[in-house]
Amino acid sequence: MNETPPDDPGGEPDTPCVGVCSTGFDEVCRGCLRTAVEVGRWVEMSKAEKRAVWVRILAEGYRPRNKD
Q1: Domain annotation covers residue 17
Q2: Domain limits at 55?
Q3: Of 12, 16, 25, 35, which is least surrounded by CB within 10 A?
Q4: Alpha helix locations (H) across 1-68?
Q5: Number of domains, the chain
Q6: Is 61 part of any domain?
Q7: What tens digit of pLDDT does each residue of 10-64 get?
Q8: pTM of the predicted structure, to 2 decimals
């Protein structure tokens, strides 16, 4: 499956959060694959910064939660 990060959320979520917030010893959320710093800064990040995070987490296997 070849997913791309949203350029403009319009229908896509603004955040990769899936509501399963859990980190282990590495400070990476098991739900959205963002680091604790990325989660904390998300609302102040530029579109370019968010896009870079989307690219990385999609490459690492991020899958959005089912909308059903």
Answers
A1: no
A2: 22-68
A3: 25
A4: 36-41, 47-59
A5: 1
A6: yes
A7: 555 789 998 888 877 788 998 999 999 999 999 999 999 999 999 999 999 998 8
A8: 0.77
